Q: What sequence folds into this?
């Protein structure tokens, strides 16, 4: 029998390549465990499936019939509400319009009726005097009388003073105060081609510029005039799992304007036009009217000129609803990540690992990189499939999805994938600290999924709920917000409708901060502890 | 059977983690209930809130600790390899699962009772100061009140059923992380999906079928007519889930190699 | 109850791997039966089938004529040690035995008795996670003895024991067998079993290769060989070959003689005045005998040297 010989010693690898070697070792460790690879595949599949199922269950109907609403789109591509009463005449490419607003009053519904604020309906019962905070009345220059066309307006509001607003999303504050007969508000809009400037004054002689708007592609002849509008009133009295219920209805605002003067007009007469407020208008509004007595115009209108935002019982859905399955995918990813680290402690594999790579910080970093990368890949694939498929299912079921720009959609896909990756790292770090996978998984789920559940089912009042969603790792969901929170729109948009208290990247940063803190803690413990 | 019960009881009481986890059940439940009560407000009569449900909010998180206790009672055997010793000593696998279920349930009922009592106490102390008074139409939160007694006892039963659900899941999948992910996923995700779907009928059906929302109906004392299920019906749905999990777990335990 | 283990024609596959291929043998009382075989021969799988942990595809394994899972208080019929490390680290050794005792309706007094037998009195109230390998083995043996069973089954009990522990274990197992128990001990190291076992079941590739007493195996393997040490090997070889024996050189001044017993050899050499300093009958070691038998049945063999 030939004697066996030990193989000769090979030279030790270079020190600077050791992290790359550790990283490669951790990647090999991960991809060779069939269960973990399957777990990530399950995460991706379940993300798509749950999103599709929730879309399939979202058959939208209006009293049993499919809903047909008009959803005008503004110049920037966003969904808008463009409903108001317009008293207008044509204006040339250079000109101006000036008026003095002597009062802004309104009416609110007296209804105590229950049930949702439904679009396309009139008020439930009588009205009483009262002004919505964001009621608007003033001067407007608009490309034409089509809903969604470009405009610039200088106006007075119920509680927010004089303002200049243009192209639905832009809002600039002007001098405060509600106009009254004793203290009227003078307003002026001057047009020079595509540029419109808004001015306000208290006495008609000393003007302060409120803002400048550039509306590219404005036609030579536009419509200029007076308008009034008032957003619907809604108070949610109970928010539960069965949806919001509250009272509300359309409101009215009346603006009284006199000393109306125009320069640069094209021949024509004052015309009164109602934009929106029909049965197929998505926002509850009543038809308006105007009355001219001598030089005084009284314009009454209902509705809003603002971006269409989710909430308030409106019929639209935000695109992130297609990604509700990402929560399930997140749980699967977190389970795999916890197992990836705690498997080292089971069966004593940690001794082999530490012998092969004595720098424990490097091992932890390598593991974090591997699990983040594979989770990101799984999330990316899942989101890229779930969004188009889910949107198709939602639309086929009669839902309206608020349009989003390509950049926003990219943020939605990448952000969701990034959330999964960071949650995986958080779970890995907790698993390294606690060495028990079940507790690590539970803590991550309690920190990310449970606050989301609490916010969506209104277990806590909105103030406390928002506070929670700013602090816990669940704040990361803010990256999925597709429609920004516009301050000039009053709507009850909560987490369930896709609105979060923090800005997208701010919320994501909170999640990252938690993961970073956990990693630091894990590193400290790993270095100090015996293997 | 009594020998199996004795053995499982000895196992649980000599495992130091058991005491800590049960303490966590009580502490977490009471703390979250206190936080919910502290943030609740009822400015006027007809504010449509349910003080009992607010008081017992802590169960939403306490159930996670209960799930861990139950999952570890089974999964720790597999992770240490002790399952072979256990099955050599007690080859009757269904009897083994039943003994584990019985012992774990008794412990969870005890911890749950403490947690529920503590939650009720925090509600009774804090809520009247936040507008939940007789003037606004709310009776004080005492066990003398029938619905409140039902909510309290029901919360304890709810926790025990969650424990049984988790035990069955752990017996089926064996790994503790996977079992806990599965249980918490089913509990927390179904209500989220229900809140997101826009069709009211589908939502109602989901709320009736989901174990967490159905089971927590037992905590409601107001607005009972608008609930998707009556309190006891809801708890029965959760009991069905628990039974199904135990069945699946028992079958897999019986048929698989150890 | 009769103290026996009966394995009858057991077949077991795990997926594509055939682990047991008609394993059949009996463990009789009053002796220590060694269950030896190369790694992967199916020893642990057979023991798991006996305990009802794995279900066989065909065949049966009976303890005292009954299947293990049908026994009431099974640890009082068959005590086993499969994996000494299967302990909850945070539980003490005594508490581990305590729940086992409770599962058989036994009490703490019995626990303390077996702890004394296994020599773990002092360490019993410490966390099992801190036990050394040898202490874990002793705890496992204590667990096997808890029910005072007539049949004992141990999978590689010598693993990790120090020389003192091995000596203790050897004597302990023999005393258990001498008291009339059936003892099945598996191992893949021959030197441990050589002085412990009376009977051997040699397994390879899921089957039984030999089911014989130790003495019989050694006799068969030893053959008619003798070792001769002499300063004149050529002359000794000539003389012996002339008498009909076959002689081989085993080293400097060392000859292996086959075909004659030692008496005949010494007579022949003395007759021819051939000096020799040592003549001994070759006694095969268990290792030699075993390697000869299992050479073809080895599942995992390392490469013979590495080419530079």
A:
């Amino acid at each position: 029998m030939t004697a066996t010989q030990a193989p000769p010693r090979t030279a030790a690898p270079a020190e600077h390549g050791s992290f790359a070697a550790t990283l490669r070792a951790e990647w090999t460790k991960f991809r060779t465990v069939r269960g973990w690879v399957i777990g990530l595949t399950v995460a991706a599949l379940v993300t798509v499936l749950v999103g599709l199922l929730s879309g399939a269950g979202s058959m939208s109907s209006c009293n049993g019939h499919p809903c047909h609403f008009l959803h005008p789109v503004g110049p920037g591509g966003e969904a808008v509400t463009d409903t108001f009463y317009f008293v207008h005449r044509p204006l040339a490419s250079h000109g101006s319009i000036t008026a003095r607003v002597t009062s802004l009053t309104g009416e609110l519904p007296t209804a105590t009726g229950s049930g949702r604020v439904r679009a396309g309906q009139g008020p439930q019962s009588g009205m009483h005097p009262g002004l919505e905070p964001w009621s608007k009345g003033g001067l407007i220059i608009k490309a034409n009388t089509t809903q969604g066309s470009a405009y610039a307006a200088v106006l007075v509001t119920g509680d927010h003073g004089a303002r200049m607003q243009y192209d639905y999303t832009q809002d600039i504050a002007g001098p405060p105060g509600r106009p009254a007969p004793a203290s009227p508000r003078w307003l002026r809009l001057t047009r020079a081609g595509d540029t419109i400037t808004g001015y306000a004054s208290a006495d008609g002689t000393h003007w302060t510029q409120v803002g400048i708007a550039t509306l590219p592609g404005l036609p030579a002849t536009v419509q200029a005039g007076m308008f009034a509008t008032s957003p619907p009133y809604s108070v949610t009295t109970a928010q539960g799992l069965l949806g919001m219920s509250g009272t509300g209805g359309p409101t009215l605002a009346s603006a009284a304007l006199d000393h109306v003067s125009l320069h640069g007009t094209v021949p024509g007469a004052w015309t009164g036009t109602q934009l929106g407020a029909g049965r197929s208008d998505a926002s509850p509004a009543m038809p308006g009217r105007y009355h001219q007595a001598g030089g005084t115009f009284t314009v009454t209108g209902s509705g809003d000129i603002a971006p269409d935002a989710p909430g308030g019982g409106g019929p639209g859905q935000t695109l992130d609803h297609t990604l509700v399955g990402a929560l399930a995918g997140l749980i699967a990813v977190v389970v795999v990540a916890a197992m990836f680290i705690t498997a080292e402690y089971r069966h004593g594999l940690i001794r082999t690992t530490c012998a092969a790579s004595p720098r424990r910080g490097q091992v932890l970093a390598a593991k974090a990189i591997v699990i983040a990368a594979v989770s990101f890949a799984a999330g990316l694939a899942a989101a890229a499939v779930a969004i188009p498929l889910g949107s198709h299912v939602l639309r086929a079921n009669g839902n309206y999805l608020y349009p989003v720009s390509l950049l926003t959609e990219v943020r939605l896909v990448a952000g969701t994938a990034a959330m999964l990756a960071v949650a995986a790292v958080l779970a890995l770090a907790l698993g390294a600290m606690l060495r028990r996978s079940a507790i690590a998984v539970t803590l991550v789920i309690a920190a990310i999924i449970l606050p989301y559940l609490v916010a969506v089912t209104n277990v806590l009042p909105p103030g406390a709920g928002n506070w929670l969603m700013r602090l816990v790792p669940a704040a990361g969901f803010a990256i999925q917000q597709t429609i920004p929170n516009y301050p000039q729109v009053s709507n009850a948009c909560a987490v369930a409708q896709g609105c979060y208290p923090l800005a997208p990247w701010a919320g994501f940063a909170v999640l990252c901060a938690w993961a970073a803190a956990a990693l630091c803690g894990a590193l400290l413990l790993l270095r100090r502890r015996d293997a | 059977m009594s020998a199996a019960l004795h053995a499982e009881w000895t196992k649980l009481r000599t495992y130091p983690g058991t005491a800590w986890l049960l303490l966590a059940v009580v502490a977490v439940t009471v703390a979250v209930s206190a936080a919910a009560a502290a943030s609740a407000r009822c400015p006027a009569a007809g504010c449509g809130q349910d003080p009992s449900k607010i008081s017992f909010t802590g169960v939403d998180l306490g159930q996670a600790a209960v799930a861990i206790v139950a999952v570890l009672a089974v999964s720790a055997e597999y992770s240490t390899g002790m399952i072979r010793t256990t099955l050599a000593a007690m080859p009757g696998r269904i009897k083994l699962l039943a003994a584990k279920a019985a012992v774990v349930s008794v412990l969870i009922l005890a911890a749950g009772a403490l947690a529920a009592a503590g939650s009720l106490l925090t509600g009774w102390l804090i809520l009247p100061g936040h507008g939940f008074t007789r003037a606004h139409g709310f009776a004080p939160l005492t066990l003398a009140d029938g619905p409140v007694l039902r909510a309290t006892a029901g919360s304890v039963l709810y926790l025990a059923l969650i424990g049984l659900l988790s035990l069955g899941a752990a017996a089926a999948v064996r790994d503790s992380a996977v079992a806990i992910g599965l249980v918490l996923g089913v509990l927390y995700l179904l209500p989220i999906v229900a809140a997101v779907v826009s069709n009211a009928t589908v939502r109602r059906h989901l709320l009736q079928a989901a174990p967490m929302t159905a089971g927590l109906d037992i905590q409601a004392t107001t607005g009972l007519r608008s609930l998707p299920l009556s309190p006891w019906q809801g708890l029965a749905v959760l009991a069905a889930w628990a039974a199904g999990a135990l069945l699946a777990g028992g079958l897999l335990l019986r048929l698989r190699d150890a | 109850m009769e103290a026996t283990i009966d394995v009858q024609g057991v077949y077991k596959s795990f997926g594509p791997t055939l682990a047991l291929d008609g394993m059949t043998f009996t463990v009789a009382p009053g002796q220590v039966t060694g269950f030896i075989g190369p790694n992967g021969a199916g020893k642990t799988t057979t023991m798991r089938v006996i305990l009802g942990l794995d279900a066989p595809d065909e065949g049966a394994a009976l303890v005292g004529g009954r299947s293990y899972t049908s026994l009431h208080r099974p640890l009082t019929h068959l005590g086993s040690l499969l994996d000494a490390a299967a302990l909850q680290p945070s539980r003490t050794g005594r508490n581990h035995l305590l729940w086992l005792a409770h599962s058989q309706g036994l009490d703490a007094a019995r626990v303390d008795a077996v702890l004394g037998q296994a020599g773990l009195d002092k360490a019993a109230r410490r966390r099992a996670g801190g036990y050394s390998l040898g202490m874990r083995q002793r705890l496992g043996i204590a667990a096997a003895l808890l029910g005072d069973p007539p049949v004992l089954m141990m999978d590689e009990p010598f693993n990790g024991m120090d020389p003192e522990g091995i000596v203790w274990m050897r004597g302990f197992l023999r005393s258990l067998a001498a008291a009339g128990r059936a003892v099945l001990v598996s191992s893949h190291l021959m030197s441990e079993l050589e002085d412990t076992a009376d009977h051997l079941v040699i397994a390879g590739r899921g089957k039984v290769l030999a089911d014989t007493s130790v003495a019989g195996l050694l006799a068969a393997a030893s053959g008619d060989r003798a070792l001769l040490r002499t300063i004149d090997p050529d002359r000794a070889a000539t003389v012996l070959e002339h008498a009909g024996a076959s002689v081989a050189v085993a080293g400097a001044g060392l000859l292996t003689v086959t075909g004659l017993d030692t008496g005949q050899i010494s007579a022949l050499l003395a007759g021819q005045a051939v000096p020799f300093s040592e003549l001994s009958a070759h006694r095969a070691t268990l290792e030699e005998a075993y390697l000869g038998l299992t050479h073809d049945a080895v599942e995992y063999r390392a490469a013979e040297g590495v080419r530079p």
The first strand of chain A starts at residue 80 and ends at 82.
